[in-house]
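Lecture notes, unit on binding sites. The following record was shown on slide 14. It pairs a sequence with fe (iii) ion.
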Amino acid sequence: MTTTEHSPTAAGSGASASQVFRATHSAADTASEASAERVDDVARAVLRAVHQVIREKNVSYPEFQAVKQWLMDVGEGGEWPLFLDVFVEHVIEEVAARTQNGSVGSIQGPYYIPDQQRVDSPATLPARPDEQGDPLVLSGQVTDVGGKPVAGAELDIWQADSAGYYSGFAPDIPEGNLRAVVVADEQGRFEINTVRPAPYQIPTDGPTGKLIAAAGWHAWRPAHLHLFVQAPGYRRVTSQLYFAGGEWLDSDVAEATKPELVLDPQPGDDGRLHSSYDFVLEPAS
Ligand code: DHB
Ligand code: FE
């Protein structure tokens, strides 16, 4: 068969991302907090920006109807989390970062699944017996902004496998694969054994992929590890770590790379790749 047999389809990963989003964000979360003034202010600004583009680009009736169809397709395909996290979240993160004093962060993306297995450091991420990919050891320390170790800090980590697929969002990968909550030691130190992920491609067969193809863009994110780093009383850091020299590092479709987030793993005597990275947590507000 063709490679599509094992490729996650847009329908599969988009719909799963929508399901996970619904399961982890209650309607109350989403609807209750904004005042009428805030909704008026932001919604009006969004509409003004859209009107402005229509005037500036002379958008026609056929184009308007095509966009309507496309928006319906994104919703029906469950691709809103995927689309918004690729094309919008990096600016939300940029705004959040204005008030951040801990480690530099990055976007969360659509593929986090809560409540994974907890493992004390030194930890090995759950993996298939024949998990492919270069063994990788990520170690480091979690401290507060004053340099004091944060004992028992949690590193909730998730990543694609060496083919670029996430468990829970692609067929044939066991639940929880390459996902865990790693608990740092009394000194805030951690060691995580995993494999180096491959670059990730946005599913090309859904509406998001169609837009990317129609515009002549590419659909790739560079290889990355996702992490939440957290401890009681501290503001959670949402981050991603990338790999020096990796493909797409300078043209991430999600625009979520930062120079501070690039690892440069080196082979150790044990034949595995080693890299270290420290995290700094600031107090919760
Ligand atoms: C998407 C996928 C990712 O792995 C990621 O980190 C960000 C966004 C996406 O498909 O939307
Ligand atoms: Fe990702």
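Take-home: The longest helix spans residues 36-57.
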